[in-house]
Every structure is written in structure tokens, then in C-alpha cells.
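Field log, afternoon session.

UNIT: design team B
ACTIVITY: writing a sequence onto a fixed backbone
BACKBONE:
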């Protein structure tokens, strides 16, 4: 099976490092420089004290080949529009693994017969163009958005990189969205690791209020989600959220795909997302501050 992985960020490199053990993998990167580095030096995966290397093919996305059986799209949601033109005439099955839910409207317009949606619960940190550190073991969940679900039942390391198939893509995505909405913006604004949301009593009050607001917008049990999200915070206590890392690295965040979607749904459902609006504005301000400091 031939798999193309679009995106040379942390998730794209993580997928490539594990899937290349069982499949013929090609990574498509934004820059020619990164593709050259991967081709010459291979991918390096760090897990605990273990370092492993593998050679994979890498090309800049403008040189994308046809003939892949599956393309896994790992770019962030705000870069998705830049890669869609490369996908329209490619008849491979597609699997999208973006945070948030705002990208569904773009995915829906694609002509492909087989489209899957995935969510990634692993922690990963990109150290350089060809080195990825697996910082937290989790699972990848996938479900069919359109077409055959069997196309996404990939063989991978069951202990280190398991893939779980879900029946309902919307329910799967909504659960992850609520997790992201309740952890990422708070940690980004507060400059705190995930575990601090539970450890700091003042942060915890904010966390509880935000969880109540977001679950109320989607009519989801607050008690169940609170317990679930707190479990994630404990499991990833020392980790920084991707949004906090983006702020620290002066990059654009996925706030529009996460809280932007929450606020949009609140408007449709005639509910007031007061804290979500405040956090959204604060994260946008930090993005602008990062641009001005560059």
C-alpha cells in the first residue's frame, strides 16, 4: 500500500515515522529544503531513551505524485486551503487529521468518493526538519466521512501508535473539539502546561467555567466531559498544548478552527459564549503581539 503524508510538521513526521515501518510512505513538505533534509538524513524518532531512524521518500508538495492509495493530510487547519488544489485531481482516498471542526465545510466540497476524518491523541514535538519526539502515547481515531471505512484500518504498532476505528465521525470530532477548546486557549493565554489547569486553584475555576460554557453550547454532559478532560490534563500534565507552543514560537494558532467554531455554533444555537469570546480575543492579541515582535 502506498501512503502519502502531506505536511512536515510534528504530526506528519510522527505518522511517517511509524507508518513507514509497514508501508511505502512519501512525505510531502511545504519547502524543498525540508524534503532534501529528510531524503538525505532520514527520519529520526525519539521515544524516551530510544532513538530510531528510517529512510523515507520526501518531496515538496508541488511535485506530488499520483498513484498513492491513501493521502493523510496533516497540515494545520489554516493551511488546508493551500493544499486542496493538489488534492482535487488526485483520486487517492483521503484522511484529514486537523484540530477543530471548521475544516469540514472545505472537506465536504471535495469530489473524492472516499474521505476519512481522524483525530490524533498523541503528544509530539518537532525538534528539527527530520527529527520528531514522541512526547505522549495516545491513539489515532478515524471514521469515514464519505465512502468505505476499511480504507483507514492501517496496520501500525499496537502499543506505540494504535489506530482505533469509530462509527460516527461527528461525535468523535465533537469530543476532541471540546477537549481542545477547554485546554488549548487557557494554556496559551496563561502560559501554563496542561497540568497547571488542575493544580492552580484559580486556573481550575476558569477551566471549570469554560468547560461548563462549551458543553452547554453543544448540549453535552458537563460532568462526563469534565472528568474526561481532567484525565487528559493529568496524563499530559507536563506537556504544553500545541496552541501554547504556537504562541511561544510566534506562529499562527488554530484558534479560529477551535474557539471560532464554538462561537459560530453558539450563535446558531442562540447561546452566549462569553468566556470563549474573551479567550478568542486574547489569543488573537497574542498572535498579533508575536507578529510585531518578529
Amino acid at each position: 500500500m502506498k501512503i502519502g503524508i502531506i505536511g512536515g510538521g510534528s504530526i506528519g513526521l510522527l505518522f511517517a515515522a511509524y507508518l513507514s515501518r509497514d508501508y511505502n510512505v512519501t512525505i510531502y513538505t511545504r519547502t524543498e529544503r525540508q524534503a532534501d533534509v529528510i531524503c538525505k538524513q532520514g527520519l529520526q524518532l525519539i521515544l524516551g531513551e530510544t532513538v530510531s531512524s528510517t529512510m523515507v521518500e520526501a518531496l515538496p508538495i508541488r511535485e506530488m505524485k499520483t498513484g498513492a492509495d491513501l493521502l493523510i493530510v496533516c497540515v494545520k487547519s489554516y493551511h488546508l486551503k493551500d493544499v486542496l488544489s493538489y488534492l482535487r485531481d488526485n483520486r487517492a482516498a483521503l484522511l484529514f487529521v486537523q484540530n477543530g471542526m471548521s475544516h469540514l465545510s472545505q472537506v465536504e466540497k471535495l469530489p473524492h468518493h472516499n474521505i476519512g476524518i481522524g483525530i490524533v491523541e498523541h503528544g509530539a514535538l518537532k525538534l528539527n526538519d527530520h527529527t520528531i519526539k514522541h512526547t505522549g502515547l495516545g491513539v489515532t481515531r478515524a471514521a469515514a466521512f464519505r465512502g468505505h471505512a476499511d480504507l483507514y484500518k492501517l496496520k501500525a504498532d499496537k502499543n506505540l501508535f494504535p489506530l482505533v476505528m469509530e462509527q460516527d465521525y461527528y461525535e468523535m470530532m465533537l469530543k476532541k473539539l471540546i477537549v481542545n477548546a477547554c485546554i488549548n486557549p487557557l494554556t496559551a493565554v496563561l502560559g501554563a502546561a496542561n497540568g497547571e489547569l488542575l493544580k492552580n486553584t484559580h486556573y481550575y475555576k476558569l477551566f471549570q467555567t469554560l468547560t461548563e460554557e462549551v458543553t452547554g453550547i453543544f448540549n453535552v454532559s458537563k460532568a462526563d466531559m469534565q472528568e474526561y478532560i481532567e484525565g487528559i490534563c493529568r496524563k499530559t500534565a507536563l506537556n504544553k498544548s500545541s496552541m501554547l507552543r504556537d504562541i511561544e514560537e510566534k506562529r499562527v494558532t488554530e484558534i479560529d478552527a477551535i474557539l471560532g467554531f464554538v462561537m459560530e455554533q453558539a450563535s446558531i444555537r442562540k447561546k452566549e459564549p462569553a468566556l470563549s469570546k474573551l479567550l478568542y480575543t486574547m489569543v488573537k492579541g497574542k498572535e498579533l503581539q508575536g507578529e510585531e515582535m518578529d
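LOG NOTE: The CA atoms of residues 217 and 271 lie 6 Å apart.
NEXT ACTIVITY: expression trials, pending approval
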